[in-house]
From TrEMBL:
InterPro entries: DUF420. The chain crosses the membrane at residues 16-39, 51-72, 84-101, 121-144, 165-184. Pfam families: DUF420. This is DUF420 domain-containing protein. PANTHER family: DUF420 DOMAIN-CONTAINING PROTEIN, HYPOTHETICAL MEMBRANE SPANNING PROTEIN.
């Protein structure tokens, strides 16, 4: 009974729920950036690299599920669309845990490039960060509506419109995140990456 009442309240107040969840997310991220949340362990370089690779995998999977979700809803396969988007949202939550752990543990890295490549990287990174922040409320709102309404009820909500905005912002942010990861870790950070793996290789011998 209590669960049913809570779900009805969320269903009747999706914007308020979206606002509360978004604010909580922003507080967590900004608190980590500011270093006022002493809940993260200090990380070694090898761990930072490992988290970077894990984040890239999670982002790639999330982008894939988003593309599949869009494809399925265009075909009218609502159930598959719902499963894909919930999987993508779960992956983004996993990304958030990994990213905040990396950031809070001092896992900051700098690209070993200069000139046009460096500035292109900075622009892509900035767009990625801005879109990540902007997409939070629209993604949360789309998910809240999707979880509290039936497919027929969703036709009378802003789910489709908000969902299109969420997919555009979220998808581009993920794509740019993957590109900047490749540039930072596998194109212009290869030597640093190999050096960070050296202790692991030596330790196994």
């Amino acid at each position: 009974m209590a669960t049913s009442t809570a779900k009805r309240r969320v269903k009747n107040n999706p914007r308020a729920v979206t606002a509360v969840l978004s604010v909580l997310g922003y507080v967590l991220v900004l608190g980590t950036f500011a270093g006022v949340l002493p809940i993260y362990p200090e990380l070694e370089r090898a761990t930072v690299d490992l988290l970077s690779h894990a984040i890239a995998v999670v982002n790639t999977l999330a982008l894939t599920t988003i593309v599949l979700g869009v494809r399925w809803i265009r075909r009218g396969e609502v159930r598959k669309h719902r499963t894909a988007m919930l999987a993508a949202f779960t992956l983004i939550l996993l990304f958030l845990v990994l990213y905040l752990t990396k950031l809070g543990g001092g896992g900051e890295k700098h690209i070993a490039a200069s000139g046009a490549v460096y500035y292109a990287y900075i622009v892509m990174l900035a767009i990625h960060i801005v879109l990540s922040a902007v997409s939070v409320p629209v993604v949360v709102h789309a998910v809240v509506l999707g979880l509290t309404h039936t497919p027929s009820e969703l036709r009378d909500t802003a789910h489709a419109r908000v969902g299109r905005i969420a997919v555009a912002a979220w998808g581009l942010s993920l794509a740019l995140g993957i590109v900047t990861y490749v540039l930072l870790n596998h194109v212009y950070g290869v030597e640093q990456y190999v050096m960070s793996l050296a202790p692991l290789v030596v330790g196994r011998r």
